[in-house]
Amino acid sequence: MATHAAASESSHRRYFVPEPSVWPFMLTIALGTILYSVSMYLEERHPGPIPFVLGGALFVYIVFTWFRGVAKESETGQYSEQVDRTYRLGMSWFIFSEVMFFAAFFGALYYARELSVPWLSGEGARVSTSEFLWPAFENIWPTNGPAAIGGQFKTISPWHLPLINTLLLLTSSVTITFAHHALKEGHRKATILWMWATIALGATFLYFQVTEYIEAYHELNLTLHSGIYGSTFFMLTGFHGMHVTLGTIMMISVTGRLMAGHFKPESHFGFEGVAWYWHFVDVVWVGLFIFVYIL
Q1: In the chain, pLDDT over 70 holds for what percent of residues?
Q2: Which of 84-93, 193-202, 243-252 has the highest mean pLDDT?
Q3: Residue 7 binned pLDDT confidence (cut-offs 50, 70, 90)
Q4: Which residues, 6+ apart, have CB-to-CB distance to 104 below 8 Å?
Q5: pLDDT digits (tens, 9 = 90+) for 8-23
């Protein structure tokens, strides 16, 4: 009995360290290829679709293969309670870094709207800047900046597609919460159904966002060239869309594991971490809906 207890305590204190992996290096190459192709497209130096497609395909392959390896480590009992705590701390700090990521962009929006534009129009200054640079510039938001960079444009009404997308994401927060409770109660089939519902809501959000971008470019003349408003609009909504895409991929992976019999009611942080991330994505969108579309 004493020997068994000692072995159990040793296993509890053991910290699993994985073997060196090539996946971080390969993932960097995939993301670098995607970033290169997107940056070239934005600068109108089109490299063609091949770099983006290859980078995207490599990214998806690596992520799912890497996830499969981590799932195998978990399901074969190599993780202890200490590893679980480490994962929770790691995911908490990751989400905190994402909060700071979006805080910087919201800060850029605030700076442009509340400070830069009023200064350029001469408000709050002894000598009006506009008298020397842009005499006709006024403190009006939304603005495409002095000299009407990119031409005149119209903004997207918040009460159509943005409102629908808000309802979709708020609903998805409810469905993934139902899935979490079903998992904790041991109802696997219900968990899987709620997860597929959440994935469908996320995919529908992305479809409507693409539809919104097409409308902005082809009907409203709202583009990345539409001055400071266009820059901040696409920067905030575009990066959020990227996070929704990543969150949807993560949920597909987790749902696949659920269908394979992974996760237990008392031990399922792989699922829980994805749920945390999805709730974060939803909260950020509520901020976007208020500060970008409405105000």
Answers
A1: 90
A2: 193-202
A3: very low
A4: none
A5: 444 455 678 878 888 8
In the predicted structure, residue 1 carries a pLDDT above the cut 50: no
Q: How far is CA 169 from CA 41, 78, 102, 196, in A?
A: 29, 35, 18, 14
pLDDT at 2: 43
Domain with CATH 1.10.287.70 in the chain: 17-74
pLDDT at residue 130, as a whole number = 59
Q: What does the H/E/C string look like for the chain?
A: CHHHHHHHHHHHHCCCCCCCCCHHHHHHHHHHHHHHHHHHHHCCCCCCCHHHHHHHHHHHHHHHHHHHHHHHHHHCCCCCHHHHHHHHHHHHHHHHHHHHHHHHHHHHHHHHHHHHHHHHHCCCCCCCHHHHCCCCCCCCCCCCCHHHCCCCCCCCCCCCHHHHHHHHHHHHHHHHHHHHHHHHCCCHHHHHHHHHHHHHHHHHHHHHHHHHHHHHHHCCCCCCCCHHHHHHHHHHHHHHHHHHHHHHHHHHHHHHHHHCCCCECCECHHHHHHHHHHHHHHHHHHHHHHHHHHC
Question: Residue 59: CB partners within 8 Å, gap ≥ 6?
Answer: 27, 30, 31, 34
| CATH 1.20.120.80-classified regions of the chain | 79-294
- Reference 161, options 214, 197, 102, 200; nearest CA is 214
Looking at the domain covering 17-74, what would its CATH class be? mainly alpha
Fold of 79-294: Four Helix Bundle (Hemerythrin (Met), subunit A) (1.20.120)
Nearest to 169 by CA among 237, 93, 268: 237
| Segment 109-151, tens digit of pLDDT | 999 998 888 887 776 655 555 566 667 777 888 988 776 677 7
